[in-house]
């Protein structure tokens, strides 16, 4: 049930869409589904896909438009609409793609009318149609009261503080904690990148302490306003906010982070130093990562000398927007010294690594899939991830 109560109580995803998926009647019939509440149970027991969950996207920018497209690829959820503040090119493209567009506020409506971009209403209307909203608005936009009032579950992004939801999510690390949750935050691109590689290391080899030096992209490729464009900017706060943010998912991890911003837009790069608890070889480290989701190995020996070649790989993979959902780790940049001191480099495609995490968070919160591994596999299959994992 959603956070607001009664409306969501009738939101039985188990009301099976016969036209869409069923050749055979659901064992126990539709009433049985209603008696169970969420359809997920019916799905698990019958193997029959349930009606798609209705997902709204509030904020259709860098992250929102990617999450919308990823949700649209899933057979257990659908995009019921996207909402925007301004009638810019992204709003027009959303309509051209076939998404139902909503103005975020009543005040914004006349701007859309003036621009000749048709909207279906305002965010409040969209929320009435939704089971869950993915909030991809800038940090502290303050929509939680609106979601609570509408009785919808919500996912926020890494610009928000952990305290907004008290539940930060990474599919590989804590899927089960988000089962049935009303409000979840997917941490930032950098934090997600660190968790992807540190969680399997801790699980398989044990981590005593971590120091991650993070070389951050200045801004995103589509943003011409921010910088620096010819300087290196240290983040003077120590640790940088990334370390505590990793601990919002892995509370026991002893991690310190240092960050600098550099004039690039394509990726972040992390240089990571890990003191392991147990002795390991670099082969064992690589093996731990091969068993983990959403890590992709690249090799300097094959000409991958920088983030430029990693993005070239992403373009060659032919995915939408040349996105790289995986964290790229230089296989020949992994070094273990004295048995327990590990060093490695990884690169993070900031615009897309959080996208599969959003999809899995939706599945967990709406209990469309109770097994995190199955959700991860499904998301990866639909997004084309994992084909070359471990190469
Ligand atoms: P963006 O600026 O690209 O898109 C924001 C969207 O929200 C736009 O559609 C804009 O029209 C809308 N918007 C702007 N102000 C608004 C307001 N006051 N109320 C409602 N809507 C408003 O932003 P983004 O980069 O997609 O970031 C969204 C969230 O994702 C932030 O929390 C950010 O920290 C996080 N995030 C960003 C990246 C990244 O690299 N861009 C990576 C991971 C997480």
3D structure, described in words:
The chain has 16 helices and 14 strands. It has 391 residues and is α/β, with parallel strands linked by helices. Strands 7, 8, 9, 10, 11, 12, 13 and 14 form an eight-stranded mixed beta sheet that branches. It has a six-stranded parallel beta sheet with strand order 3-2-1-4-5-6, sandwiched between helices. It is globular. It has two domains: 52-186 and 355-383, 3-Layer(aba) Sandwich (Rossmann fold); 189-348, Dihydrodipicolinate Reductase, domain 2 (2-Layer Sandwich), CATH 3.30.360. The two termini are 42 Å apart. α5 packs across α15. The longest helix has 17 residues, at 189-205. Residues 59-64, 84-86, 104, 136-139, 141, 157-160, 188-189, 220, 350-351, 354 line the site of nicotinamide-adenine-dinucleotide.
């Amino acid at each position: 049930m959603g956070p607001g109560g009664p409306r969501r109580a009738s939101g039985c995803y188990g009301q099976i869409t016969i036209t869409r998926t069923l050749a055979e009647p659901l064992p126990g019939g539709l009433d049985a589904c209603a008696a169970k509440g969420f359809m997920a149970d019916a799905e698990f027991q019958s193997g029959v896909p349930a009606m798609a969950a209705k997902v709204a996207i509030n904020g259709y920018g860098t992250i929102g438009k990617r999450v919308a497209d990823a949700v649209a690829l899933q057979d257990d959820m659908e995009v019921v609409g996207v909402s925007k503040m301004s009638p810019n090119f992204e709003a027009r493209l959303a309509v051209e793609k076939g998404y139902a567009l909503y103005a975020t506020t009543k005040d914004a409506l006349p701007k859309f009318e003036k621009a000749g971009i048709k909207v279906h209403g305002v965010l409040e209307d969209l929320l009435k149609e939704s089971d869950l909203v993915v909030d991809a608005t800038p940090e502290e936009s303050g929509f939680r009261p609106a979601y609570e009032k509408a009785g919808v579950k919500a996912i926020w992004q890494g610009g928000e503080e952990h305290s907004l939801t008290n539940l930060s999510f990474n599919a590989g690390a804590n899927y089960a904690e988000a089962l049935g949750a009303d409000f979840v935050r997917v941490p930032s691109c950098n934090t997600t990148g660190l968790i992807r590689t540190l969680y399997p290391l801790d699980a398989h080899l044990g981590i005593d302490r971590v120091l991650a030096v993070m070389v951050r992209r200045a801004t995103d490729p589509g943003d011409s306003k921010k910088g620096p464009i010819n300087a290196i900017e240290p983040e003077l706060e120590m640790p940088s906010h990334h370390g505590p943010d990793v601990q919002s998912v892995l509370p026991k991890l002893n991690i310190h982070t240092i960050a600098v911003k550099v004039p690039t837009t394509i990726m972040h790069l992390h240089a990571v130093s890990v003191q392991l608890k147990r002795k390991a070889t670099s082969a064992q480290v690589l093996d731990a990562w091969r068993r983990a989701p959403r890590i992709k190995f690249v090799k300097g020996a094959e000409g991958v000398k920088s983030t430029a070649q990693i993005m070239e790989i992403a373009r060659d993979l032919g995915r939408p927007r040349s996105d790289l959902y995986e964290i790229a780790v230089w296989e020949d940049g992994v070094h273990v010294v004295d048995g327990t001191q590990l060093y490695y480099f990884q690169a993070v495609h900031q615009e897309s690594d959080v996208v599969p995490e959003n999809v899995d968070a939706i599945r967990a919160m709406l209990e469309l899939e109770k097994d995190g591994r199955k959700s991860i596999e499904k998301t990866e299959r639909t997004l084309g991830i994992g084909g070359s994992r471990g190469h």
